[in-house]
Design brief:
- The protein has two helices and six strands; from the N terminus they run ααββββββ.
- By secondary structure, the chain is α+β, with helices and mostly antiparallel strands.
- It has two domains: about 130 residues; about 60 residues, Nucleotide Exchange Factor Grpe, Chain A, domain 2 (Roll).
- The strands form two sheets. It has a three-stranded antiparallel beta sheet with strand order 1-4-5. A three-stranded mixed beta sheet has the order 2-6-3, with no helix packed on it.
- Helix 1 packs antiparallel against helix 2.
- The longest helix has about 100 residues.
């Protein structure tokens, strides 16, 4: 009997294997459909996350632009306030230059004033403040303000012949216009 039992068991085993193989085929088909469904589901999730990422990216770009605009506005405000202080400083600088010229005409020693003026010029240079050169130049309303017209046939009309007050440029922009005298042609009657 033990041999018969073996045969019966052995005949049952192959049938069980067939049933298991049939189940695994069904499982494989089921897995394929499940994979396709999950693939679609995951692709939707990826698309949603990409959309969310794009929205956050746009938001961060807007925030960066807002920050840069604010930074520019603050720098402009600081420069405007700083320019006002520099303009006030220029008044003091010009007073020193006038005092030096007056003392020099009287024959006084102006070495100490020259040292102070040199330091002041250095400070102005640090802030990119430069004087506007005018003598012998053509009048340019972007840089000069006419305070007097002088009749003169020796120079071309509109030539600057005298500077009344010095003008200055800061960072390429006019901070203070030069006040000048320009020539005009003599009218003959």
């Amino acid at each position: 009997m033990p041999e018969n039992e073996k045969n019966e068991n052995s005949s049952i085993e192959p049938q069980e294997n067939i049933e298991q193989n049939d189940n695994s085929f069904d499982n494989a088909t089921y897995d394929k459909k499940e994979i396709e469904n999950s693939s679609v589901h995951y692709q939707q999730k990826i698309n949603e996350l990409n959309d969310l990422l794009e929205k956050e990216k746009q938001k961060s770009l807007r925030l960066l632009a807002d920050y840069q605009n604010l930074e520019k506005q603050i720098i402009d405000r600081i420069n405007t306030r700083g320019d006002k202080i520099i303009l006030d400083f220029l008044t003091v600088y010009e007073d020193f230059v006038r005092a030096k010229n007056m003392y020099e005409k009287e024959g006084e020693n102006v070495d100490s004033l020259n040292g102070i003026i040199k330091n002041m010029k250095s400070i102005l240079g640090n802030y990119q403040v430069k004087p506007i050169e005018v003598e012998g130049e053509k009048f340019d309303p972007k840089f000069h303000e006419v305070v007097q017209e002088i009749e003169d046939n020796d120079h071309e009309e509109g030539t600057i012949v005298k500077e009344i007050a010095k003008g200055y440029i800061i960072r390429g922009e006019v901070m203070k216009y030069s006040k000048v005298c320009v020539t005009k042609k003599l009218i003959k009657k």
